[in-house]
Amino acid sequence: MNAPAWASDPARSRGRRFAEPPAPTRDDFQRDRDRIVHSTAFRRLVYKTQVFLNHEGDLFRTRLTHSLEVAQLGRSVARALGLNEDLVEAIALAHDLGHTPFGHAGQDELNRCMAAHGGFEHNLQSLRVVDALEHRYPGFDGLNLSFETREGILKHCSRANAERLEAQEPGGIGRRFLDGTQPSLEAQLTNLADEIAYNAHDIDDGVRSGLLQLPALQEVELFDRHRRQTLAEHPQLDERRLLYEAIRRMLSEQVYDLIDTTRAALAEAGPADADAVRGLPPLVRFSEGMRAQSVALKRFLFANLYRHPQVMRTTGRAQQVVRELFAAFVQGDMALPERHAGRPDRPRAVADYIAGMTDRFAVREHERLTGRPWTDE
Fold first, then answer.
1. Region Disordered: what ranges (predicted)?
2. Displacement of CA 359 from its chain's centroid (Å)
3. Whole-number Cα distances in Å, 286 to 66, 78, 290, 293, 333
4. Please, are residues 162 and 124 in contact by the beta-carbon 8 Å criterion?
5. Are 143 and 35 in contact (CB under 8 A)?
């Protein structure tokens, strides 16, 4: 079946920053995906966490499992819409490569540490990983990914950073943040697949941890509708299976809503090709009703999980680890690895090094610095 005109075509890619001969058996987007999977940063994701830190349990999501879930959801929707599945998968697998240890707590603290040195944005850091920080090839730094994969990785970007990117790469991936245009449909899709995935798995992990109780979720209509339907059909179901089935149905409803709404938007807009998509409003989207329900779920999770006192205690400890590591490396109390030590921009070099750490490595380095073992107290 021929792909629709608005799908990204690897044969019409805007290319790589460094020219390379084509691969004999893979197109550019497949090659991007494979380079990401074999990267050092991708392997580290297995020990980088989301809400619950690495020592808190073996069954909670990590950045790696989250990225795989985003890729699965994204590919399924891309197939239904006729979009390029390989590009969606490449973006999904790379979108969290720049995340710090300790989830958003680590990111927020590293941004504070870097406030006088240009700040820290995890999306921009993911781009730095694939553009510069991976050292695998003899002819260039980074992974030399295609333009389309790189623009999908850079989901958000401040204007100041977009201007810096534009100065370095005129008309490149920073441009859309300055002129208000959109990325490819595949990038738009991966953004929403990310949202669907983390909302669902944060419910699962929150209940598993004991911080969320199933009855409390009754105030979230998007989830509770499926809980009630499941109980009506399976009244003897135990709580664990009830949770799984309600989440599965919730995921399915969001996916089908996304597919149907996006199909209608594409039919109405009728973009002539993939480039025409860029000058239109976002076309991959939920219906208004589903968007409102998704926002309500996010608000519930923010109030009841992300700001739970137990999570906040762990957050405070994680931020202390990042803050003290940053100060020690910048001041020279701890030696940077050789690849970072010779750089003139020491604060940025330190930020790159800390951002690349896994949770357990950061804890180990902090204990080596201070002599204090990890404690949530």
1. 1-29
2. 17
3. 21, 15, 6, 10, 50
4. no
5. yes
Residue count of the chain? 377
Q: How far apart are CA 148 and CA 278, in angstroms?
A: 12
- Consecutive H or E run containing 329: helix 309-331
pLDDT tens-place string over residues 137-193: 999 999 999 999 999 999 999 999 999 999 999 999 999 999 999 999 999 999 999
Cα–Cα distance measured from residue 250 to residue 199, given in angstroms and rounded to the nearest whole number: 10
Contacts for 73-78: CB closer than 8 Å, 24+ residues apart: 73/193, 73/196, 73/197, 73/251, 73/255, 74/189, 74/190, 74/193, 76/255, 77/189, 77/193, 77/255, 77/258, 77/259, 78/186, 78/189
Q: Just give the CATH number of 26-200+251-370.
A: 1.10.3210.10
Tens-place pLDDT, residues 311-350: 778 888 889 999 999 999 999 877 888 888 888 899 999 9
Asked whether the beta carbons of 227 and 218 are under 8 A apart, the reply is yes
Whole-angstrom CA distances from 294 to 20, 206, 217, 265 are 42, 17, 13, 19
Percent of the chain with pLDDT over 90: 78
Tokens for 298? 């996010």
What does the angle CA 260 – CA 264 – CA 269 come to, to the nearest 5 degrees?
A: 150
**What's the angle, vertex CA 30, arms to CA 28 and CA 33, rounded to 5?**
110
pTM over 0.85: yes
Axis crossing angle, helix 239-269 with helix 185-209, rounded to the nearest 10 = 170
Query: End-to-end CA distance of the chain, in Å?
Result: 58
CA gyration radius, the chain: 21
More confident residue, 68 or 49: 68
pLDDT of 204 strictly over 50: yes
Contact 305, 201 (CB under 8 A): no
